[in-house]
Amino acid sequence: MSSSRADIIEVLGVNYESRSSTELVDGFPDVPDYVPPTLTRLEGLPENIQAKFKIYESQTAWIRRKFGISGYFQVYTMCSLFASMGCFITGLDTGTIGPITLMPQFRDRFGTDSPVTQGLVVSCILMTASVAAIFSGPFADRFSRTHIFATGALIFSLGSLITAASGNLSMLLTGRCIAGFGQGLFWSTITVYITEIAPTNIRGRLSCIAQLYITMGIALGYFISYGCIRLTSSTSWRLPFIVQAVLSLQFAVGSVFLPHSPRWLQHVGRTDEASRTWSYLGFSAIEVQKEQEFVQRQASAQYVGWYATAKMLWSKDVRGRTALGVFLMAMQQACGINAIVYYAPVLFAQAGLKPMTTAFLASGISALLNCLYTIVAQTFTDRLGRRSFVIVGGTMISISMLIIGTMYATHASESAVGKWMIVGCLYLFLFVFSMTWGIVTRIYCTEIQPIRTRAAATSLAQCAHWVVDWLIAFTAPLYLSKSASGPYFLFGGCALLTAIVCLLFQPESRGITLEGLDGLFEVSPWRKLLERYLSGRREGREEPIALTLRRA
Which residues of 82-121 are buried (b: 16+ CB within 10 A; e: fewer)? Predict the structure, then answer.
């Protein structure tokens, strides 16, 4: 149906046609004249526009309303859900590899009775992943986030297939190392991608999807292992690797169809494409304009190379953020989370749960609870703040680890009450970690960086994360065979140290746009505390330290 067109008014990303007649919108004869929630957004328009013309929504907005698609199911949400599939695959490997090394069929073929061999099989994937993580940031800046997803997933799929087909230890380790290189490429880029396509008000919740997928993968991995342990053939340990290979291949193919990060497009000078991508993802025109202005001020539209990127990471305006991100990601592993995840059946058996199938089942239950905790934590991430999550979480993690260490050191673990207390503290540790550190550390390390260093800094932090992860995964069997209490004291001490460092140096980033975070790092929290205290004394109204700490 034809009609004369007047002005096109764009408000918050929606095109409104102003007409002098009551003709219907072309191609949509049943479009309603107005939608009350929409009209409340038009208060800023000149009065004569609303009074003189009927207002119609554009096709995209009309279709969303027609089919009842809410804002939380915008394209950016769908893209975040799919991108997080890489985290699910990683969680699946994490949840299966520890139990696999305990399967009789696997131990008979590869000789993993030795703590050294067991630690090497579990941790070798992390060695190559940490190396690949260093390159993933510059590669993501050069070739795009989504292309790195696809490349890394293909390599991971190949490595998993080699692992599944292994007939000897050398072939097994080779496959694991190849898979690790692929994992290192796509892993750290996932959080960068989600952070860059997410609106500020739900950035934390969308980024939490990645952690939720990790816990879901770990849970599924435990239960796959629990089911496979009953098989008598080599299928018992080959099947989990085949599942990983198939899922990774699907992730690689699907990644090709993901839209590029609009911030990355803007960064490399593809401005028009960035504008279209913002709109496609579901951002409003005002938000798009604001984001583009910030990115243009922050980033140069060209690839700067490896050496220049390394220099930028430690330039005066971002080196504090880089150091804090590397520290947080390293200490997230130093608290012992993956030692417990990898060797959960061993730890539960050590605590008194027999036989091994019972320990496997307890591990699976802990992983399911981990998923539940992560879902609950998602609702609070953008309300309570990153800083408080890290400080409170570190304190509680430290307490639970130190209690377990004390129980083993004093031999209180030998009593029935002591054994169940250790199991309870392990579950408490998983609860606190999932609700705090598991959610916010990776988000925080990514969002505090400017666009020019975000991918590279996240890759460096992820490299530190995996180096510490490898050290713990490799040495945990040896350490546990020598001392039942020592590892827990180490983990508890690292968590407490992290809480103290974050109390002094970590500013809050909740509710601030990615491009608006620069000012937070001009003055660290402890300096703000000192300045506020001294200012209070000068004015004759000295504030209590506790109150000041709470406000910092």
Answer: bbbbbbbbbbbbbbbbbbbbbbebbbebbebeebebbbbb
SS (H, E, C) 267-306: HCCCHHHHHHHHHHHCCCHHHHHHHHHHHHHHCCCCCCCH
Q: Quick one: tokens of 347?
A: 């730890």
Instruction: Identify whether the C-beta of residue 386 lies closer than 8 Å to the C-beta of residue 440.
Output: yes
54-56 and 8-11 strand pairing: unpaired
Could you give the C-alpha distances from 216 to 180, 250, 431, in angstroms and in order?
A: 20, 17, 15
Do the beta carbons of residue 279 and residue 195 sit within 8 Å?
Answer: no
519 DSSP 8-state letter = G
* Distance between first and last Cα of the chain: 61
Task: Check if the beta carbon of residue 448 is closer than 8 Å to that of residue 521.
Answer: yes
Asked if residues 98 and 345 have their Cβ atoms less than 8 Å apart, the reply is yes
Closest CA to 449 of 517, 387, 503: 517
Measured N-to-C along each axis, helices 203-228 and 235-255 cross at an angle, to the nearest 10 degrees, of 150
What's the rounded Cα separation, in Å, for the pair 434 and 380?
12
Q: CB count, 10 Å around CB of 547?
A: 11
Q: What is the pLDDT of residue 512?
A: 67
pLDDT, tens digit, for every residue of 84-121? Answer: 999 999 999 988 888 888 888 888 888 777 788 888 89
| Domain residue extents for the chain | 8-69, 72-505, 522-551
Token pair of 186 as six digits: 């796509």
Q: Which residues have a Cβ under 8 Å from the Cβ of 360 and sit 6 or more positions away? A: 99, 222, 225, 226, 229, 345
What is the enclosing helix (H) or strand (E) of 55?
A: strand 54-56
CA dihedral (249, 254, 255, 260) in degrees, to 10, reads 170
Question: Cβ contacts of residue 312 below 8 Å, gap of 6+?
Answer: 304, 318, 452, 453, 456
Helix, strand, coil: what percent of the chain each, to 5?
75, 0, 20
Output the CA torsion sign for 197, 202, 203, 208.
Answer: negative
For 327-368, how does the pLDDT look when each residue is reduced to its tens digit (9 = 90+)?
A: 999 999 999 888 887 777 777 777 666 655 555 666 677 778
Query: What CATH number has the domain spanning 72-505?
Result: 1.20.1250.20
Cβ-based neighbours of 488, under 8 Å, separated by 6 or more: 336, 401, 402, 404, 405, 408
How is residue 442 written in tokens?
Answer: 């990776």
CB 186 within 8 A of CB 149: yes
Helix spans in 22-114 (H): 36-39, 47-52, 59-66, 75-83, 85-100, 104-110
State the Cα angle at 488 between 487 and 493, rounded to 5°: 100
- Given a cut of 70, whether residue 298 has pLDDT beyond it is no
Burial class (CB in 10 A: 0-12, 13-18, 19+), 152: buried
CA separation for the pair 525, 509 (Å, rounded): 12
